[in-house]
Known about the structure:
Protein name: TPM domain-containing protein
Domain TPM: 39-161, 178-295
CATH topology of the domain at 178-322: Diaminopimelate Epimerase, Chain A, domain 1
Pfam families: TPM_phosphatase
Number of strands: 9
CATH class of the domain at 178-322: Alpha Beta
CATH architecture of the domain at 178-322: Roll
Organism: Paenibacillus typhae
Keywords: Membrane, Transmembrane, Transmembrane helix
Number of helices: 11
Mean pLDDT: 77
Strand content: 5-15%
Amino acid sequence: MKHKGILLLLIMVLLSVMQLPERSWAKPAVPEHTNAFYVNDFAGVIDLKAENYMINYGVKLHQETGAQVVLVTVDSTGGASMEEYARTLFDAWEIGSSDKEKGVLLLLSIKDDNYWVLQGDGLKNSLTDSMLSQLLNESLEPDFARKEYAAGARKTYGALIKSLGGVWTEPLGMHNFVADNAGVLPQVTRLYLNQSSNRYKTTTGSGIYFVTVNNPGGKTLQEYTYAKYASLGAGTRDVLVVLDIEGDNYHVLQGRDVDTTLTNELIGDILNKSLEPQFAAKKYAAGVTAAANDFYHYFLTRADRSPAAAGEAAGVSVKVAATETTEAAADIPVEVPAKNDTVSGEGIDRVKEPAPKSKGLMSTVLLLSIVALIAVAASYRYRQSARSAPYRRTEPEHSRRRFRGAGQGGRSNRTGGKSRHG
Length: 422
């Protein structure tokens, strides 16, 4: 009975292990990548300004070298180890292409307070594990420890881009994309809008123009926008946003080569989300900055699929993108870029350890359980076999007697009786 109890106990342990949550055995569930692909901020910790910057140079790196750097932020890995979750993402999204394996994944898990970087097999010689470890310690760890995730992610993304031979900073063009005739935009806003359009137009082929006026000069705002589009020399992939301050109105116009994808409906969504709340509150700088970031984001997320040549011809026909609206939208938060998003600080000596591998632990428990079951079963079978065998008494070798049959020169073991011959 004792051995039966042990056997039943081990069977129960084995069944319990086998019924553990599925994620202990199967690959963890991972989300689909966003349209941006290069930056997937599922945890909501990266501002749109930083995201656009990273996407821009991620696209450039891929177009120039074929390599891809992908950033993913999640709330948690759902119990999976960082390594397992990263590998599943890497394979599911085919980062760096499944055949060339020229990709790098940077994974940040916010609630797990951990991060992981994974390079494809095609980059393991040029971007070794020791190089990645040093890069994380210098670029990510200080900001990550302070929970300044956007700053750390941007620095690390840039370091990865440069380590793969890509461009992270570059001389910008001097084309003017802002005409603040109404004088409502501070210099820092005008500078940001000009720099962003000069930077992103080389990647997307699209620039965003902003014009403010106090009076459209006797024309309707739509007529003024048409005329201004032509006089600015905007191209067939550009967008013009005109703000009529005194008229409390705005109008948007896009070039003919993008009006089938950047539809009136999409433009209306951008305006209602980013521009209208700020415009209604007369926060014009915040409104145009938020709208610009959304327009840049739209073009950047499509740049790698259909890259357009920069510097298009001017003076082409355009179509109306969206009608004016003054109805206040819901108070939706918008991303307003700071004047300086860099974070100072020295690195700290902290080594991030990967989370325990639950799958490996479960496999070990299962193996030990099976070995124990086999051992107990073998022992139990042996004892049962011994009990069921016929009882045979044995004596020590030195006390055994051996009798030989009569007629062989020895004595018979029989006494008395009668012989054949009398």
